[in-house]
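Structure tokens please, single chain.
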Amino acid sequence: MLNVENLNVYYGNIHALKNISFEVKEGEIVTLIGANGAGKTTILHTASGLLKAQSGTITLKGKRIDDMEADKILAHKMAHVPEGRRVFSQMTVKENLELGAFTRRDKKEINKDIKKMYQHFPRLKERRKQLAGTMSGGEQQMLAIARALMSRPEILLLDEPSMGLAPMLVQEIFDIIVDINNNGTTVLLVEQNATMALKIANRAYVLETGHIINSGNASDLLDNDDVKRAYLGS
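Here you go.
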């Protein structure tokens, strides 16, 4: 579904991504793990059009998207939940959800999807008239995911969805990711909590200073001694 080949991205003179190649197949959860500064977020930003690569190609369902603007990529059924949630803090929960559907014109279906989000995230229904900025971190993360789902993506990019959340909420967020995937949405996940990410993913890529240094089935990497020492606290 998503193919990245020989991607090179620079921040000024800093070579952030160095000939990165990977794929995400339809129906998978694929996770990118690695230390801070390894290039994980840069990959998501480049894939979703927020950054432009100096070289390399990105294709989505066989169509090149590396030269597209971010809004056009969203219209091709790929949505991005950024690090830090980035909800519209001065707007209500319902208004945030409506903005998630800004590329759509099917008002009846949009209202139907808002109701579906309320079923999927009951706390959002309880707080639908509340300003997003007044909600807890976990509730804001649920809203950020629900807002992205309002565009009806076929693939969802998630950047550090568990960051800053209490352990009980972390488990809830990962359960939501699995549920989203079970309902037919492919997921590319960037996550500092490597153990949790590898437990729910089909496959994984390990990044270090802009390179992919390891890849394979997530269950195999979970048992890999080098990965355990470097990223799993073992």
